Amino acid sequence: MRSYISLFPVVLSLLGLTACGSETRNGEAGASPATTGGAGGSGGTGAGGAPVPMGGGAGVSTCTPGVPATSQIPRMKDAAYNAVLKDLLGVTAVAGELPSKALAPDYDGSMTAIAWDGYLKTAEKIAAEVMAGANKSQFMSCDPAIGTCLTDTIKSFGRKAFRRPLTAAEVTSFERFKSVTPVGTPDEIAETILYAFLASPSFIMLPELSADKNLENTANKLTSFEAATRLSFLLWGTVPDAELNTAADNDQLTTKEQIAAQARRMLKSDKVAPAVARFHQAYLGIETSSHWLNNKEHDPKFGKFTAATYAPLLGEMDSFFKELVFKGGTLNDLFLSNVGFVTQDTAALYGLDPKAYGADPVRVELDPKQRPGFLTRAGFLSTFSNYGTTSPILRGAFISGRILGINPGEPSPDALKTPIPDGVYTTRRQQIEALTGVQPCKSCHAQFINPAGFVLERYDAIGSWQETDQLTGPIDGTADVFLGNGKSKTISAPIDMMKELAALPIVQRHYAEQFVTFATGRSPNSNDACTVDRLATSLAQATYPVLNLMADYTEADSFRLRTVGQ
Questions:
Q1: Taking residues 545-553, what's their average pLDDT?
Q2: How open is the CA angle 222-224-225, to the nearest 5 degrees?
Q3: Rounded to an integer, what distance in angstroms lies between the CA atom of residue 242 and that of residue 244?
Q4: Number of separate helices (H) and strands (E) present in the chain
């Protein structure tokens, strides 16, 4: 950009972009389900060290009508940043990497100097590449040297980038680049304008600054532009489309009926698929930031599992949820469907011939007794295992924490270092029972954690079905599984456990709660509990499609109203 590169600090100064505001969420870190207990989550114990029920269990937050406090300026997450640049400018890579590569990983704290520098450098590269390449027409459709082209571009592109019309003052600020000294060529000025847009907090953040009050004067009403942005980033992870923008321009996103109508329209688009995948990744604890994604290697003695196996196994999980959700599947289907997506690298784990498959996943129907639902897919089972052995503890803690919402608490540091007692063992189950059979471990493990994991001992460390344990003994998959409300039931087969889980109100409620947590970035609280209760009631209906949950959530008061934290 010639000498104009040195003017970028001036550009920022002209627009008041020398700093970004805080996006803290009123003291909360925008906890994902990965931090709310269960396997890998931060635990908590009540009086006397008793397990604390998390979302969906007895003693959770009860409904208190009201609108929880939210951030006024949440930051656009990295996945959304990539999607937005693709939709606005056709940009899918910067220097061969995803546009978000140079940004700080997703976080919910204040903007740091290092993070801010990443945005500035990325904006500079994108502006230069767009103006020099085929995507220039997506930024401007006219010759910057002619007439009102630059002003028209500022208004039209600004409407899309800021998700609202620019104010007259903003238009004037962008127009001042035409008179900056030294005077640049029309293309250089246009490039600087694009840079300024991409470096603006109004682009990077998703501001919700409306001060208009609702009738009760208890909360601020989102503007139609803010509602459109919130809706689009929730469902599509990107900027609103033309129809949603038109509704916002006409102020037709002020009631829950108007918002829900747009949500139902948007859910018919395949653009919602990434949101479906991201939510279920969070539900499973295998989102991009999860430490469980490091658990992708297994002992070479498991010949069916190679370096090429893990990625398609995780891809199968995404495909499984997308298939069921988009085909009207219910929560029951998520726990019981035998649909799988197999490649040449994963077929053997399911007892299928790898030669019959290629690199692309193929939809198959697996043995319904052996493979009911997502908890029996090799992607889940191999992730929640050890390098060389199964882990009834990891699998059982996952079901206790994420599925049932019961937080058995953190194990003591000493317990984590305790070796399996000496002895002769013919099954992994015997080892775990010996390891956890004494206090302080026994009270939690015997009731809440181990039993569900023992039922899943039918699957080895890489997720294949097994009748004989690695230690040569027969698999004992019968256990008294805790099902909430102080009740346990003797279960001998994975399919029976999945049927029980799918029918439990506690499971339905916790699934709804985790979706609300995903959608809002808030930890479970008594205000959101009202929305959770309503959604859980819908999920309890045998024919209720899981996809409807996303539209029904937008009818909550807290979707179109917000309060400011202290």
A1: 97
A2: 95
A3: 6
A4: 25, 9
Tokens of 88: 């606005």
DSSP 362-394: EEEE--TTT--SGGGSHHHHHHTS-SSS--HHH
- How many Cβ atoms sit within 10 Å of the Cβ of residue 147? 10
- Torsion sign across C-alpha atoms 535, 540, 545, 546: positive
Tell whether the model's pLDDT for residue 16 goes beyond 90.
no
Structure tokens at 153: 């571009």
- Neighbouring C-alpha atoms within 13 Å toward the C-beta of 541: 10
- Average pLDDT in the 100-108 region? 85
- Kindly list the distances between the CA atom of residue 330 and the CA atoms of 215, 326, 412, in Å, as whole numbers in the listed order: 37, 10, 38
Identify the DSSP state of 512: H
**Residues making up the chain, counted from first to last:** 566
- Please check whether residue 527 is in contact with residue 67, taking contact to mean a CB–CB distance below 8 angstroms: yes
Mean predicted confidence (pLDDT) in 82-106: 94
pLDDT for the residue 272: 96
Render pLDDT for 304-326 as a digit per residue (tens, 0 to 9): 999 999 999 999 999 999 999 99
Distance CA 446, CA 456 (A): 15
Confidence band of 13 (pLDDT split at 50, 70, 90): low
CA dihedral 508, 514, 520, 525 (to 10 degrees): 80
Which positions ≥6 away from 147 have C-beta within 8 Å?
A: none
- Mean per-residue pLDDT of the chain: 88
> 500-507, long-range: CB within 8 Å, 24+ apart, which pairs?
501/335, 501/399, 501/403, 501/404, 502/331, 502/332, 502/334, 502/335, 502/336, 502/373, 503/332, 504/404, 505/536, 505/540, 506/56, 506/57, 506/404, 506/405, 507/56, 507/331, 507/403, 507/404
Please tell me whether the peptide bond between 182 and the residue prior to it is cis, using omega within 30 degrees of 0: yes
Assign 3-class secondary structure to 452-499.
HHHHHHHECCCCCECCECCCCCECCCCEEEECCCCCEEEECCHHHHHH
Helices (H), 199-339: 201-204, 224-235, 242-249, 256-266, 273-284, 310-326, 331-336
pLDDT tens digits for 245-261? 999 999 999 999 999 99
Q: Are the beta carbons of 548 and 333 closer than 8 angstroms? A: no
Closest by CA position to 497, among listed 513, 475, 482, 476: 482
Contact 355, 258 (CB under 8 A): no
Is pTM beyond 0.85 here? yes
In one letter, which amino acid is 294?
N
Cα 550 to Cα 506: distance, rounded to the nearest angstrom: 19
Report the C-alpha gap between 47 and 441 in whole angstroms: 16
| CA proximity to 56, closest of 393, 553, 489, 501 | 501
Tell me which residue has tokens 């890579």: 93
